[in-house]
């Protein structure tokens, strides 16, 4: 009986340590992202190109390095949540230099749709590498993270508010497609990007975007 009590106590202690560890990780994430609300975020450099319509923008992004992770699945919401968690660990020091990297915006998700409605899509979630780290970004220690050399991109952009989800993004994507077709603008059907700028606890004036490649 004594051995059973000791074993039970040890298991309870281990469980508590796991809870405290997860709480600590979440607290660090909230602290880091919370600072962003007051200090602002670095964003990738781009220029605005003249647009045929007033209901979307055309932007040309410079080539730059991004920290990225790729996932398979049927829901972008789940992929972005898991991808964010992986990348946040990287910028918090899970890299060869054990160096913290500044949070940036937006978090992008490159979506390569599956061949059918029930097929898995490929999602690549990315954090922009801040300018001070662009020349030599810390090398990830996780095999799930890689440094992406993203070439110059010209994208058609539709901005929308609220707490984005798969259905909302799909609706806004279709609206952007309709606008481009209305204006007889050529664009790539896929892949396309979903972009988010805000932490989950920001309740108002949220900013989300659809990016369609030229």
Q: How are the SSEs placed, and which strands pair?
A:
Blueprint: H1 2-39, E1 46-49, E2 57-61, E3 64-73, H2 76-91, E4 107-112, E5 121-128, E6 146-150, E7 153-160, H3 166-182, E8 192-196, E9 208-213
Protein traits:
214 residues; globular; 33% helix; alpha+beta; 9 strands
Structural overview:
The chain is of the alpha+beta class. The protein is 33% helix and 27% strand. The protein has a nine-stranded antiparallel β-sheet, covered by helices on one side. The longest helix is centred in the N-terminal third of the chain and has 38 residues, at 2-39. The termini are far apart. The relative contact order is 0.17. The model is unreliable at 35-39 (pLDDT under 50).
Largest sheet: 9 strands, antiparallel
SSE pattern, N- to C-terminal: HEEEHEEEEHEE
Given as residue ranges, the uncertain stretches (5+ residues, pLDDT < 50) are: 35-39
Number of strands: 9
The whole-angstrom Rg is 20 Å
Supply the number of helical segments: 3
Helix content: 25-40%
Portion in strands = 25-35%
- Strands side by side in the biggest sheet: 1-2-7-9-8-4-5-3-6
What's the overall average pLDDT, rounded? 88
Shape: globular
User: How far apart are the termini?
Assistant: 71 Å
Would you tell me the structural class of the helices and strands?
alpha+beta
